Amino acid sequence: MTLMDVLVSFARTGRVGPLHCGMSLAEAEDLLGPGRPHPAHILCPGIDGYPYSWDGLQLMVTQRAVSGIWINLWPGSTARLPPLVLTESESFEATVLREDLTAALDDAGCRHVVNSRLTFGRQSSLVTQPADVCAVFSLPGRDNHVPHRDRHHLDVMHLRRA
Fold first, then answer.
1. pLDDT averaged over the chain?
2. How far apart are CA 45 and CA 35, in angstroms?
3. CA dist 131 to 13, 16, 86, 158, Å?
4. What b/e readout covers 30-69, taking b as 16+ CB neighbours within 10 angstroms?
């Protein structure tokens, strides 16, 4: 399985492997191991709406249940996802061009539309249908070491459920 396979599957289903919104944090930690809680959890242990992280994977937690899933990428760098998510490679090249992702979504029959709320300035966004996964792209910053500086790169894919 490649990073693109993970991204397309997430876009189509709203799931990252067995991870899904609505599962308990305890179930997620049984699968992934203990997550790294946001510092707000340490200061206020019962606080809601902050992420637990496993490298490039974040799960938003509300009332001890997963309410959001985020895959964070850093174009031009090497990123990490837990082995449960990307089984063949714990670290990977984190550069994904917008046109490569949209072509993969089209090939998989995953519909997507422009997300006008997050398309402005140097960034663009799309939302997949029917899973409602949002992908946000941007032009690279000066610290992003990528060959195509004039093209939009994927920064994050996320799903948020109330």
1. 89
2. 14
3. 6, 12, 20, 11
4. eebeebebbeebeeeeeeeeebbebebbbbbbbeebbbbb
Count of residues in the chain: 162
Q: How far apart are the C-alpha atoms of 105 and 40, rounded to whole Å?
A: 36
Q: Encode pLDDT of 73-126 as tens digits.
A: 988 888 888 988 887 666 778 899 999 999 999 999 999 999 999 999 999 999
Q: Helices 3-13 and 98-107 meet at what angle, rounded to 10?
A: 60
Determine the pLDDT at residue 42: 60
Cβ atoms of 152 and 139 closer than 8 Å? yes
Amino acid at the residue 84: L
CA distances from 40 to 50, 97, 126, 162 (A): 7, 33, 30, 20
Q: Which residues contact 5 (CB under 8 A, 6 or more apart)?
A: none
Question: Model's pTM, two decimal places?
Answer: 0.91
Closest Cα to residue 4, out of 66, 95, 76?
A: 95
Tell me the β-bridge partners of 31.
Answer: none
- Is the pLDDT at 31 greater than 60, yes or no? yes
DSSP-assigned beta bridge partners for residue 50 = 61
